Amino acid sequence: MEKIFKLKENRTNVRTEVLAGLTTFLTMAYILAVNPNMLSATGMPIGGVFTATALASAIACVVMAFTANLPVALAPGMGINAFFTYTVVLTMGFSWQLALTAVFIEGIIFIILSLFNIREAIAKAIPVNLKKAIAVGIGLFIALIGFANAGIVVTPYGGVPLIGLGDLSQPAPLLALMGFVLIIVLYTLKVPGAILIGILGTTVISILFGVTAIPQGWSPVSFPDAPIFLQFEWSNILTFKFLIVLFTFLFVDIFDTLGTLVGVTTQAKLIDKNGNIPRAKQAFLSDAVGTVVGAGLGTSTVTSYIESSAGIAAGGRTGLTALSTGVLFLAALLLSPIFLLIPGFATAPALIFVGFLMMTPVMEIDFKDPTEGIPAFLAIVMMPFAYSIADGIVYGILSYVVLKSVTRKFKEIPVVTWVLFAVFIIKLIVM
Description:
This protein is mostly helical and 431 residues long. The protein has one domain. The protein contains 19 helices and two strands. Strands 1-2 form a two-stranded antiparallel ribbon. The longest helix is centred in the middle third of the chain and has 28 residues, at 240-267. The radius of gyration is 21 Å and the shape is globular. 55% of the residues are buried.
């Protein structure tokens, strides 16, 4: 362990790292309930998605552990799975097989970009305030989905929220609110696994009150369903519509992973004096491999998780933390009946709370400078208001370049940002 993970050099030990891995798993294990629930809305078999989620998460964590040696866990990303379900399939009308094909091709492209250090170059070139704003906007978008899934906010099917609240006298929104209160109380008291406890507690209460029914012959332990292996659709991959979806997957994942890695490595005090991520190439390669494997097994894009910060707070500093989390994802495969019994309104509080966790970078955004603050503001608000992560990124980049240009601050616009500006202009004109 010492030779592989350099524990002494990072001032840690096996016990601390394993406990940190357990903490990270307890904090992000909600994805085992949320992801199958969300992707099943596309028609995908929920049991197969559960298996794919656990396997892809485990594999990506192991790759991160042994290649990047960072205490960062990975799983199918929140936000990008919402884009997969509500935008690509339910709004644009893609089949889930074609959406998986886009994720698979995205992963292949990511492997190539990672090997040639292109993702690392993008990471260094994106303006700092915009990086932080993207993370915050994604958090608000995820929270909005949670409120909608709970019935607390009323939305049309897959659309933008209507003004007003849902019927709070119904069991689902009431139970969701109870679950949210439980999570925030446990989190405030610094209880490990507060999110998972909140989900399970809400589920138990719903069972006791007859809102959720236990199937006859149910057992908490069983062998998992087979994953949705290599269910791709190649017939429409050369269409412009498909290329737009692929492009959106690419850039959303770039910014999502980038924001997470910057956040957690900063928290762990692992970044160098220039603010760069250590072993960034290997870290990006880990989520690229996870994405390819995940698409082949039947789940949306795999990315680094901000919940890794919980394990870092518990002392995790090396890849042994990520390895421990990966092993626990494998163990969870035998507990699939428990996770699949959890209703959508029980996982909704987790989405809302994750939105809160992702709000932290907003305090570090320079709103006093309008050329920095306005693009950040637009990126943040357009994600939930337009019900699209991609639109938030587009408005943030476009306004950033315009405002820096009119104030003649051309030196503050990286070349890569100019490239993104041009691509987004073309996208707006063609779309």
